[in-house]
Amino acid sequence: MESSHALQVKPLPRVLAGTRRAGRASGAVLPGLAVALTVALSAAWLGRLVPTVGGPVFGIVLGALVGALLRGMAPRGTAERLRPGFAVAGRQVLQASIIVLGTGLSLSDVLRVGVGSLPVMLGTLAVALLGARTVGGLLGVHPETGLLIGVGTGVCGASAIAAVTAAVGAAEARVAYALGTIFTFNIAAVVLFPPIGHLLGMSQEAFGLWSGTAINDTSSVVATSYSYGAEAGQYAVVVKLTRSLMIVPICVALVLWRSFGRRTRDGQQDKSAGVRIWRAFPLFIVGFVLASASATYDAIPASWEPALPLISTFLITLALSGIGLALKFSKLREAGPRPLLLGAILWAAVGATSVGLQSITGRL
């Protein structure tokens, strides 16, 4: 009996110590997370007022402004004490947002788009990613910034940037530059695409495919395509959601590339790469796929469906608010105007490629 009693009592100090550590960790995280949540609520409200901009962009902008005020006006050390909460918002919340995003994309949507649209989608994606690497290198843009701008242009704007950031741990300043670049050309697309579509005599389906493959953020795709016509809008949304599936293979490829790219000092491939891949593999990708599969097989209750896209968007807004709060403007100034120029080149190249491939495949 004494032995049994001892077994019950001895772990108690360790349990209490673990509880105290958890409490200290929560105490360190909660203040910064509360600030990020406050910023995100304001950004979400502004995003509803100006949907072409959207909550996520407002989140990173407001976050950056509030972060600058905290560093300049708050008591010394306040910003540093808040950083753990900002980090949780910018990483764990970011990963959760990508999982919830998967609930809005049924895998069967890919089949509905049709085989005929796949050459356009894959072609524009290739142009965006290869262009980001090639042109970004020529312009001297940091590879990580070029990657984020490339996936944002080629896949789905802020959501793709968020997913890749969660996979590779991109720096806050590079995320901000990529989001700012994507936002700039989203607004340009909303203004320019409809008159260009009418000038080219595009059909509703052709314009929907063009919008869905050449415009980055979902809100901008909806605003642009529905201004052209309801049929164009419906087709563009399906194309846009199908593009979002490319988040998964891109993130997996990035994790594998980063893991196998690490070599030992003698130049030989590290034999522990497989172990590192398993440890580094982002579980949120698995969650994204499972969520998409749940949507495909109607495993998600119908009563949840209206709320899930709103939850995903708000979580992305909260995550980008945290990234913005941790951002320092001095890091943005170091990059200069070259990322914006890269974004302009990629945006024009993707738009032209979409029209060209539609013409070649007889979709116009």
Highlighted features:
mainly alpha, single chain, disordered N terminus
Question: What's the short story on this structure?
Answer:
It is built from 17 helices and no strands.
How much is the average pLDDT? 78
What profile does the largest beta sheet have? none
Strand content: under 5%
Distance between the termini: 83 Å
- What is the H-and-E element order? HHHHHHHHHHHHHHHHH
Rg computed from alpha carbons, rounded to a whole number of angstroms: 22 Å
The 3D shape can be described as globular
Helix fraction by DSSP (H/I, runs of at least 4) = over 70%
Q: Give the number of DSSP strands.
A: 0
Structural class: mainly alpha
Low-confidence blocks of residues: 1-10, 270-280
Q: Tally the helices: what do you get?
A: 17
Task: Please write out the topology.
Blueprint: H1 2-9, H2 11-49, H3 55-73, H4 78-101, H5 109-113, H6 118-139, H7 143-168, H8 172-200, H9 204-214, H10 218-228, H11 230-244, H12 247-261, H13 273-280, H14 283-296, H15 307-326, H16 329-335, H17 338-360
Characterize the structure shown.
The chain is mainly α and 364 residues long. It is 81% helix and 0% strand. The chain has helices at residues 2-9, 11-49, 55-73, 78-101, 109-113, 118-139, 143-168, 172-200, 204-214, 218-228, 230-244, 247-261, 273-280, 283-296, 307-326, 329-335, 338-360. Helix 9 (204-214) packs antiparallel against helix 10 (218-228) and helix 9 (204-214) runs parallel beside helix 11. The chain is globular and about 65 Å long. Mean pLDDT is 78; it is low at 1-10 and 270-280.
